[in-house]
Every structure is written in structure tokens, then in C-alpha cells.
Amino acid sequence: MPVRTFSAICAPPRIGRQGDSTVTVPAHPSHVASPAASGPAPHSFWQRYRVIIVAVTLFIVIDLGVLMLNFYTSFKIAEDAVSVNLSGRQRMLSQRMTKALLTLELERRDGRDTGPAREELRSVVDLFDRTLHGFNTGATVPGGDGNPVYLTAVADDGGRKVVADALARWAPYRLALAPVLEGRASPSQLGIAVAYARNENLRMLELMNDLTSVLEVNATRRADFLRMVQSVGILLALLNFIYILYKFLSSLRRADQATEAVNEENREILDSVREGLFLLHPDFTLGTQISRSVGTLLGRAPRPGDRLPDLLGPLLFEKDLKDARDYMELLFSPHVLENLVHSINPLSCVEVKTLNALGKEERKFLSFSFNRVLDDGRVRHLLVTMQDITARVALEQQIDAERGRARQEFSSLVQALGADTGALRHFVARAETQLLQVNSLLRSLSEQAGTAEVRKTLEKVFRLVHTFKGEAAALHLDLLADMAHNFEDELQQLHNKDRLNGDSLIQLPLQLEGLLEKIAVFKQIPLNPGTSDDPAQTADHALARALQLASRAAADLGKQVHTRLVFEDGALEHPWAQDPELGSLVIQLARNAIAHGIETPAERSAAGKPEAGLLTLTLARRASGELEIHLRDDGRGLQPAAVRQRLLDLGWYPPAELDRLSDLQILGQITKPGFSTAEPGGIHAGRGVGLDAVLQEVVRLGGRLWARSSPGRGSTFGIVLPGESRREPARTPA
Fold first, then answer.
1. What does the alpha-carbon distance between residue 426 and residue 424 come to, in Å, rounded to a whole number?
2. Under a CB-based contact definition with an 8 Å cutoff, are residues 449 and 505 in contact?
3. Are residues 183 and 320 in the same domain?
């Protein structure tokens, strides 16, 4: 489950310029210009809709053409219908005309009144004549219902021939009927008219039948043409519809393909982009397009419609989640200026612990940035960008560490420039010797060296490096002390391994080289000419620095301590008091007293002691010429039970054997390498090297180390160094 933590080292990610943080989209998709369409708008419109415009125009032209042809043909068919009707009436009129003439002849012979017959004949002749001439030249004649209609002249060659033949036969017939119609015809004239009627009646009927047939054929042909036009129009319209449908479907298919291509590109982008990208709706739900990195960054795969607060819940505390929700609500409010709230983004840097694909927990830093997506001034969405800024934060931390290291190095150089000349000279020379001894020890190991041999070498290296660290700290050379402490970390890791060989120490020369390079720099520092070279004063300063380091160690551990330095008569003049070895031994004993002996202020108050402990260093010269150093603290004293439990935890002795050891024997184990009752890895204690280094150095110098302790009242560690006649030459050059 992700662990929710925050780090103040994070800085808000800078993604583009703050002034460019709002994304504006058009109200309608059609308003978005295609990247390829760089020409003017009309050209773009024509290029886009050319096929549809042509198809619709063609459809309108076809429909108008068919409509016009249909109208024209229908008009002609109507004319043909009038002509056919009137030609049929001509047949009827030819028969009525003959009948009226014969009736007139009969009534005249019988002496009856011929007026009605004559009027009938006159109206029939007039109507027949006008209609026949209308067929010839076109004219307005009475229709079948008596209303005037326009009779179109016969245009067909066959029809024109029939009309011409009918006119040729009608002309003499009309002349013969003229006297009869005027009522002045003699019997002979009436006989001539009747004879002509009898002779031409059948022929005239045939001609009118022929005219009707011709006109009916023309009307049928026009009707067929109309049907053909309508069929062709329907066919063209259907073809045009199929063409439009084809183009529409093709365009739709291309649009679908383009959309699919865009979606595929979006998927490829969202699958490959390292940032987490998604759109956030006003109800805080995720949109449909979510980059794959979102799931990787969050440690779970989100789905469209998931609420962002629910996804962030396992990563944030309740208050931080509420702040994030309030911030997003502010961004969805259009009246709030986005640039004004950009700096209060609570999700600009979040430190989380998530499970990776292998199920292992990993620590990372995430950054969330929010950009408005506007539509007509309304905030439609928020574009959320997630970034893994772990590398950037690590780089910032590394830069800060390097800056701190540079400040520390500069501070160390400043301290060195103001340090005591003799002390600095002795430290640099002694440190170089110690580091070269470390180098010799590491080089002496062969690749075939076993675990025991390597562990023994590590213990020697440990003592040298620990001594170097204490002496550097006494001179306030914190850079060198920290580097030595890091060196101890690597030594401790190697020492804790079950199996070791010569290759196990392959990384140690890198740490050693760094220390030697810094010592080379310190060797080039000019000495302070104002420092006294009086041996007694130099020894006093060296021991005072050792106790000052004890005060600094107490402050680091949350303790308080007063120090006191006591010199008995002649002690400072003793050669051992002026030897750098003595200062190194006191440093280790003082740090050991602070770390293990002096209690915290609260513990001391509970025990009825002053909150500040007392550390007293005494130098005394014995009558035998030996120099005795006492370092006494008023702390908790040595605790045999605590030492016994620690030995049991380390597994150095089985429980039964520990039970057989006396308290004195148990306390004798505190000088063994690797033993410490403090927490491991501390800057001042916890390595199990301090007392071991003191004991080994005292033995090398031919001296003795003793301890006296009273539980609850304090401890005293004493060193007795031999007289001048038995003193070994110091390993450190003057």
C-alpha cells in the first residue's frame, strides 16, 4: 500500500510558461483549421465539400431538366389531346353536315320549312370549316364544351398531307354549299351540293379518320417520350443518389479511417509518453483518454470515469486531499485567475511509496500540474500532467549535498587557517602516516586471503580511521571527520559479512584516495606565525581541544557537560604530555565517556544529579617518572548487566558461559574490537573501535590501561605511560 509522505525539498515543476497555462478550444469542431489547409477559407470550403456540391448541383440540374421536359411534353400531349378530340369531332361533323343537307333537300321537296335544317347546316359547316383551317394553320376554335380552345396546326408530314387533301376536297364542297347556306340555292344548286356530299362524304370521313389516327400516333409518341424522360430522369436521379451515397460513404469511411488513425496516434502517444496525461471533468472524473504512464506513476491502473480524489486518497493525508480538491475547484471557477493560484498547487511535489511491477516497494516523487481547457470562456476540463520528478529531486538533493560539502570544505579550510600551527602540523603528518598505514594494510592482503585474515585487517584499519576521525573532529575539521565516518560505514558493512576475501576490499582504496587528496590540500595551507611553539602550552592546547570535542559530542547527543583540566606539578613538562599520541588517546576516552557514561539531562535530574555532567581530565607525574592520565565522569558508570546482554545479543558467548563469568570479567570485554553498547553507526560511538584503539595504542607505547567504576556515580579510565627512559620514539614526525 502506498505510504503518504511529503518532502520540502521539492520545487514546483516548470512546464512551459505560466502565462501559457490555459488551453482554449473552439466552440465547434468545424472551426478548427486543418494544419494542411493554409489557404483562404472559401478555397478550403470548396476543397472540403466539392464532391457534395457537384453531386447536389447535378441532382438539381437533372431534376429541373426532367421537370421542364415533363412540363413541355405534358403541354404537347394536352395539345395533342385537343387535336385528337377535335379531329374526332370533325368526323362527326362531316356526317352531321351530310345529314343536315339531305334533311334540307327532303324538307324543301316536301314543302316544309327548311329554316331549322339550314341553321343546323350553317353551324355545322362553320364549325367544320374553322376547325379544318385550324388544323392547317392553327386557330382558336370552339371546344367540345363550346368554350374556345387553341387548335395547334398539324406539324406531322403525314398529318399535313391529310389536312391538305381534306382542304382540297373541302374547298369545292364549301363553294357548293354557299348558295344553300345563304338560302338562295336553286333546286339544281341544291342537287349539286347534295350530289357532292354523297360523293365526298365517305372520303371526307376517311380523311378525318386518318387525321385522327395520325394525331393519336403523335400523342402516343409524345406519351412514350414523356415516359422515357421520366424513366431517364428517375434513373439519373437514382444514379446521382447512388453517386452521392457512394461519395458520402467514401467520405465517411475516410473520415472514420482518419479518426481511427488519429485515435491510433493518440493511443501510441498516450502509450509512449513518459508523463501521465488525462482530462479531468468538473465532477473530478477522468476522461476517456488516459496515458499508460498514469497507472505506472500511481501504482494502479485508472479507468475512464474514476474520480481523481479516490485515486489520490491512498497517497495523501486527508487534509492534503481536501486542499487538492479545493485547488481543483478553484481552477474550475472561471472568475479565478489561473496564474494567481498556480503557486499554491498542493500537488506540485508529492513523495510517495508505491509497488512496482515486481511487487517491490519503491520511493518516488510525483508532480501534478493542471491546465484549464476553455470553451467560450467556460472551463470545460482540466488537462492534468503527471511527472515522475524523482531524478530531478535526487539531483536537487545531490546539488544541495554538494553545496553543503563545499561549504563544509570551505569551513574546514577556514578552521585550518586559524588552527594552532603545531597541532595542525602534527595532525597532517600523523594523518598522512595513518592513511599510508591503511594503504599498506589493504595492499598486504592477497586475493586468496580468508575471512579471519581479512577481518583482522579490517579491525586494524578501523582503529586507524577511527583515530583519524577523532583527531580531525578535535581540530574542527568536519569535512575530514565526515569523510572518515563514511569510510567507517563501508568498513562496518564489510565487517558484518559472514564471508570475506581479498576482493571484498576492492572499493576501499577509493575512500582512502579521497582522504589522501584532502590531506594533500591541508599540507599546502600556510602556517599561522602567531601561534606559540612552547611545548607546555602546545600540550595544554591539545588536551583542551580534546575536552572541547567532548562538549561538542555532548551537544550532538542532547547532553550537557562541564569539563575540567587538572595538571599536577611537572606534568606538562613530561615528554609524554607533549606527544601527539596523548591527545589522540584523550579524544577517544572523552568521546567514550560522553557516549556511554554521561546521562541525558532528564535522566540526571531523575537520579538527583545536576543536568550537566562533569568530565575531569587529570595529568600527574609519578615519582618513578611515569605519566598518569585520569579521565573521570560522574555519569551512570559501567553496567555489567547491559554489557552481559550486549554480549548475548552479539552471540559472542553462549548464555551458560556468560552466567559463569563474573562482573569484572564481563566488564573486561568492553575493550574488544567491535563491542559497543551504543546504537551502531553514530558519529561519536557505536562502532566498537574507541576503547580497542586506546588499548592497542597504550600497549604499543608500553603503558597500561585501567578502569574504575561505580554504578550510578561514574567511571574513571586511567592510562599509565612509562618514564622517558623507556619511551618509544613517536611514529609521527615532528
1. 5
2. no
3. no
- The C-alpha cell at 27 is 466552440
Q: CATH no. for residue 420?
A: 1.20.120.160
| Helices 41-110/115-137 angle, 10° precision | 150
Residue in the block written with cell 559472542: 652
Instruction: Say if residues 728 and 702 touch (Cβ distance below 8 Å).
Output: yes
pLDDT for residue 161: 92
**Number of neighbours of residue 43 by Cβ within 10 angstroms:** 11
CB 385, CB 284: distance < 8 Å: no
**What cell was used for 431?**
594523518
Residue among 165, 130, 134, 164 nearest 152 (CA)? 134
Question: Where among 480, 514, 533 does a domain terminate?
Answer: 533
Distance CA 147, CA 134 (A): 15
700 with 565, same domain? Answer: yes
First CA to last CA across the chain, in angstroms?
A: 62
Contact in structure between 720 and 624 (CB atoms under 8 Å):
no
The residue count of the chain comes to: 734
For residues 501-539, b (16+ Cβ closer than 10 Å) or e, as one string? ebebbeebeebbeebbebbeebeeeeeeeebeeeeeebb
Q: Stretch 475-500: mean pLDDT, rounded? A: 77
Pairwise CA distance, residues 225 & 718, whole Å: 138
Q: What is the reported pTM?
A: 0.44
Are residues 544 and 665 both part of a single domain? yes
**Domain-terminating residue out of 228, 245, 262:** 245
In a domain, 254, yes or no: no
What residues are paired with 139 via a beta bridge? 151
The answer to whether position 543 is within a domain reads yes
Q: Which three cell numbers stand for residue 157?
A: 408530314
Amino acid letter for position 499: R
Strands (E), 376-509: 378-388
- Is there a single domain that holds both residue 725 and residue 649? yes
φ, ψ for residue 691, nearest 5 deg: -65, -30
Domain boundaries, position 476: 397-533
User: β-strand 23-25 against 361-375: which pairing, if any?
Assistant: parallel
CA distances from 390 to 9, 346, 507, 537 (A): 11, 17, 27, 54
Tens-place pLDDT, residues 707-716: 898 888 899 9
Q: How far apart are CA 210 and CA 216, in angstroms?
A: 10
Residue 684 or residue 222, greater confidence: 222
Contacts of 167 (CB under 8 A, 6+ apart): 132, 133, 136
CA distance 172 to 196: 9
* Distance separating alpha carbons of residues 712 and 373, to the nearest angstrom: 72
- The rounded distance, in Å, linking the Cα atoms of 40 and 42 is 6
Q: Is 32 part of any domain?
A: no
* Other Cβ atoms within 10 Å of 174 Cβ, number: 15
Query: Helix or strand or coil: residue 148?
Result: strand
328 and 421 together in one domain: no
CATH code where residue 293 lies:
3.30.450.20
**Are residues 145 and 213 both part of a single domain?**
yes
Task: Give the single-character DSSP code of 349.
Answer: S
Q: Is 448 a member of any domain?
A: yes
- Model confidence over 129-182: pLDDT tens digits? 999 898 899 889 898 788 998 988 888 888 899 899 989 989 998 898 888 888
Beta-carbon neighbour count of residue 734 at 10 Å?
A: 8
Other beta carbons within 10 Å of 447 = 8
Domain match, 440 and 304 both: no
Spatial contact of 716 and 702, defined as CB atoms under 8 Å apart: no
What total of structural domains would you count in the chain?
Answer: 4
Do both 287 and 173 map to the same domain?
A: no
Q: Give the pairing type, strands 361-375 and 350-355.
A: antiparallel
Distance CA 559, CA 682 (A): 15
